[in-house]
Amino acid sequence: GGRSVSERCRINLSRSVASDPHDCVGVAAARTREYLAFADPENKFQPSPSALREIFLMTYLQRSSQLHLADTLTCTAMTPEQRVLLGADWVWAVLDLPSRNPKIQIAVQVLHVLQEPEANTTRSDAHVEILHMASTATVERTRAERLVGFCSAVGWSCFALFLFFGFGSDPGNICGLTSSSTLVGFAFCPESYVIQHLSLTAKPFVMGSKPLFKMTISFKFDLVEVRCRLRK
Amino acid sequence: VGALRPVQMSPDQSMAATQKESGDQNFDYMFKLLIIGNSSVGKTSFLFRYADDSFTSAFVSTVGIDFKVKTVYKNDKRIKLQVWDTAGQERYRTITTAYYRGAMGFILMYDITNEESFGAVQDWSTQIKTYSWDNAQVILAGNKCDMEEERIVSAESGRLLAEQLGFEFFETSAKDNVNVKQTFERLVDIICDKMSETLETDPAVTTGTQGNARLTDNPPPLQQPNCTC
């Protein structure tokens, strides 16, 4: 009703975070609610990983629209086919105005860390057929490799970000990890609300035999600030 | 051109929409088609109108590549169309051109209210020649013909250019559903004609050495020596 966005967010911030460190979905759901102002009046919502991903995305889009960010920082949700082909769940893009061509892109793949390992990699026959339609080479690549391949094909300005919901030892953590070794930093500060921010702290991670770089990424939705800092 | 070996599908809620179409095991032929052209000419809208009969004026730039599957019937033959929707922006060119290989037909699209998109048709045509095979069939489509007041490219200019390039031509509107189905149907027709022609001169084509060759591990024998679709 008459509450400002910041008031509503403060209220949501006061909600409790799930306490079981092994309940990564519940924890990440709580974390998502906390950061993105998802309202769950009875605090009983326990979404599946895929539902959580959708909630994260939809809530982000809603917040982005409220803050009028869409003109400078767009978020494009992938279709089911694109999720398989490109390995991305959504793509954030900083636009070059007035052409509106992407200047920087961050292609995001969500992973649920404490889930059964195969749950992040299982392929249905439908997925396999989509990959077959693309090419034999595509079938042989993991979803993570497809994301990195997509970003490499676009060029230096496209970063692969693996977003981990419910990272191991820190149950309240949402972690981000990028495959790119290029240092990049950019920031935008339109007039906006000062509400809250989401910090994504990377941990060491090895994807297959290829070590990936550690990054600290923080999103401040209030200031539309996205910082990526390489830490070797 | 070979038919796809049917693939058994398993339930997956998140892929329900894809499964519904691509899970259809019963088809006689599969055609790989691509829609190409400058950014914002209406490629995605065109495909949405054809596959889902829907339209939204909100513009969302396609990231990389996407596709939809639609099955059509022609002379009692079921033809599964695998339609690839390519991003028009230059930054995705490496990705999109990789999908040209094996395509049997292209819809090369420009926007009749955008001179630059019309000027780029020649370049797109060159891309087809570079990355595709000689037998690929092309239809030139001047989209957004509902926007008559903002027209910059005349229908005659479009027709002339198509003639020069050896393509067929339609003016279309995804918004008002003008010539969308017709464009796809005509493309299927000319691919079938070309297949019949080629089969007469080069039977090797039927064994999957071109087109969707990589998709045909065990292509079933064609039921008829000539494609009568």
Automatic annotation (TrEMBL), chain A:
Keywords: Membrane, Transmembrane, Transmembrane helix. Pfam families: Rab15_effector. It comes from the Eukaryota. The chain crosses the membrane at residues 147-167. InterPro entries: Rab15_effector. GO terms for biological process: receptor recycling. PANTHER family: RAB15 EFFECTOR PROTEIN. This is Uncharacterized protein.
UniProtKB/TrEMBL annotation, chain B:
SUPFAM superfamilies: P-loop containing nucleoside triphosphate hydrolases. One of its GO terms (cellular component) is plasma membrane. It catalyses: GTP + H2O = GDP + phosphate + H(+). InterPro entries: P-loop_NTPase (IPR027417), Rab3 (IPR037872), Small_GTP-bd (IPR005225), Small_GTPase (IPR001806), Small_GTPase_Rab (IPR050305). It comes from the Eukaryota. Its main location: membrane. Residues 204-215 have a biased composition (Polar residues). GO terms for biological process: intracellular protein transport. The small GTPases Rab are key regulators of intracellular membrane trafficking, from the formation of transport vesicles to their fusion with membranes. Rabs cycle between an inactive GDP-bound form and an active GTP-bound form that is able to recruit to membranes different sets of downstream effectors directly responsible for vesicle formation, movement, tethering and fusion. This is Ras-related protein Rab-3. It comes from Electrophorus electricus.
